[in-house]
Amino acid sequence: MNFCFDCKFFAPQKSIYGNPNELTEKNLNEQFEGECRRNPPVIGIVHPNEYDEDFRGYGDFPKVFPNCWCGEFLPCARAVLKHDEDGHCPIS
């Protein structure tokens, strides 16, 4: 299965992991959050502030986990390199 972990649109929490191409298979089972950057950010929902004025939250990318998946998968550079080194294709 093609997980977000191996997708070029997956952006892990930079404060924890930095460059997604430096992730390893051991990171796949860790429960860390990332963002799907396939589409532009979605504008936040409207919240009333303390003055009863509507306040719209900032736009956000959808939050995902490394073991999530969707139909928009494209392999990241790390996944392509893994395919070349191991001789099997994780992107089928």
What is the topological layout?
Layout: E1 10-12, E2 34-36, E3 46-48, E4 54-56, E5 63-64, H1 77-86
Antiparallel strand pairs: 1-2, 2-5, 3-4
Explained architecture:
This protein has 92 residues and is an alpha+beta fold. It has one domain. 11% of the residues lie in helices and 15% in strands. The chain is built from 1 helix and 5 strands, in the order E-E-E-E-E-H. It has one helix at 77-86; strands at 10-12, 34-36, 46-48, 54-56, 63-64. A 3-stranded antiparallel beta sheet has the order 1-2-5, with no helix packed on it. It has a two-stranded antiparallel ribbon with strand order 3-4. The longest helix is centred in the last third of the chain and has 10 residues, at 77-86. The radius of gyration is 17 Å and the shape is elongated. The model has no long low-confidence stretch (mean pLDDT 77).
